Amino acid sequence: MKLTNELYSPLIETVRQICVERGVRAWLVGGAVRDGLLGRVVHDWDLAVERDAIPLARSVANRLDADVYVLDAEHDTARVILADTTIDFARLRGDNLAGDLAARDFTINAMAIDLDRPADVIDLFHGADDLDEGIIRAIGEDSLTSDPIRLLRAVRQSVAFAFEIDPQTASWIKDHAALIAGTSVERIRDELIKMLIEPGAYDTLWLLDAFDLLPHVLPEVTALKGVHQSLPHHWDVFEHTGRVLDSLELICTRWLGIEQADEGAAMLPILPMFVWDSLIFTLGAFADNLRTHLKAYAISEDRSRMNLLKWAALLHDVGKPATRTVEDSGRTRFLRHEEIGAELAADRLRALKFSSDEIDRVIGIIRGHMRPHHLAEALLTRRAIYRFFRDSKDYGVDILLLSLADHLATHGPDLDQARWVARLGLMSEMLSAYFERREEIVAPPPLVTGDDVMAALNLQPGKQVGVILDAIREAQAAGEVATKEEALELAKQVISET
Predict the structure, then answer these.
(1) I want to staple 143 with a disulfide (CB 3.0 to 4.6 A). Which of 139, 412, 474, 491 is the partner?
(2) How many other β-carbons are positioned within 10 Å of the β-carbon of residue 84?
(3) Can you tell me the mean pLDDT for 196-224?
(4) Domains, the chain, ranges and CATH?
(5) How far apart are CA 372 and CA 110, in angstroms?
(6) What is the C-alpha separation between 82 and 367, in angstroms, rounded?
(7) Residue 3 has pLDDT above 50, yes or no
(8) Sign of the dihedral through C-alpha 395, 396, 402, 406
């Protein structure tokens, strides 16, 4: 098999030249070869070298004026980082290249290219055939049991490439699912994060459950299975959760142009076309702002706001099993499920070693995900909009997006057009306030300071001053005060009422 042009990179040519200068043999391996054969643009390169991987990486970094990090000194592994590209160097895992490839996970990731002969692919395990046929096949049972994180990776790559997992590999995954519990939580977290970054979260959830992996990594989500919901819900809480994720991906694809779903999305044949026509017609003006918002990194370069929103969607209803009640009429209720769910989600995210800032963001979205529903049942006022964004900070728009997906996955085939258009109208007012009238409604510039209030009312510093300032700010957002004089007059009223 011949290599496609995707792997003829000037960067790798520089690596080859340095290898020649240092007298070190090197091979491209793993995902770079796989992606090159698939015609994908490669940003992450893996090289196996016969010796001196760390000194070689340093030489390459010096030549390219790039950063270099030692990943594992004991195993002679280092990474070169240049803009959006990484090049990893690692000493051969076995005594030779064949031993190195045999120690890898799947056949499609066990191909190599000798930098001295870049036109040919070394394929000892028929990975190219599996690539052509769209199959994820473990090299052997030991390749899964020796490093159980590969159990999760099989699911992730199956969904990412739209490949089937071959029956023998599927059997091994299910047989050894419990081994994932012995893997470090950081590695489990990172694999789950990668799964949710990719489109196809509904399929990912389904496969994790089918292979008995879900109870070991997200037991709160497993507990949603079989939890019945009354109409207008059409599915139990577990299936509903998957369809919320699927609806969110469809919204991000069809409205915002973010690659998050395809024609195989589970909700696509269920939802009528008026959903997308009315969505774009009503809210199209906000697409650029929302796209920029979601693609921004919320906390770190590993987790964008979009990724954390999908975590919130995954965990948004985990409080329902503990709060489910059945009325005499047969109707099921889940009172305060968002509060209980936020607590359970925080516990799970802490167990997975997410940062406190990431946890605060996800649980804030979960805690607030019912508020748009409540806002839709009453007259929407400027005061209500102000309070919503005051409480939800910069993730208020994330809550709004989740609420749209939740609405679609609740009503499903019975979605009422008038009700949907009304919900879009509420969204339009909320997003307009946030993006277009921010200083008027969401974050008005202060009319007075604490010093102004204390001087006018002869007050000492304390909580009372803060209460007065909050009341003035809310009245200003509501359009009830507009000058310093009006603000101080309101302050007097607040004092008289307390």
Answers:
(1) 139
(2) 7
(3) 96
(4) 5-133 (3.30.460.10), 141-214 (1.10.110.30), 221-442 (no CATH), 450-497 (no CATH)
(5) 49
(6) 40
(7) no
(8) positive
pLDDT for the residue numbered 10: 83
ω before 232 within 30° of 0 (cis)? Answer: yes
Assigned token pair, 298:
């919320």
What is the pLDDT averaged over residues 182-204?
Answer: 95
Q: Is 464 helix (H, G, I), strand (E, B) or coil?
A: helix
DSSP, collapsed to helix, strand or coil, labels residue 472 as: helix
The β-bridge partners of 86 are 44, 81
Are the C-beta atoms of residues 426 and 396 closer than 8 Å to each other? no
What is the separation of C-alpha 131 from the centre of its chain, rounded to a whole number of angstroms? 27
Whether the CB-CB separation of 82 and 69 falls below 8 Å is answered with no
Residue type, 190: D
186 CB burial (10 A radius; 0-12, 13-18, 19+): exposed
Q: Binning pLDDT at 50, 70 and 90, where does residue 9 land? A: confident
State how far the alpha carbon of 75 is from the alpha carbons of 26, 92, 96, 277, in Å: 16, 9, 15, 55
Residue 97 token pair:
């290249």
Contact 14, 64 (CB under 8 A): yes
Q: Is 416 helix (H, G, I), strand (E, B) or coil?
A: coil
Under a CB-based contact definition with an 8 Å cutoff, are residues 262 and 199 in contact? yes
The DSSP call for residue 106 is B
| Class of residue 263 by CB neighbours under 10 A (exposed 0-12, middle 13-18, buried 19+) | exposed
Count CB-CB contacts under 10 A for residue 284.
11
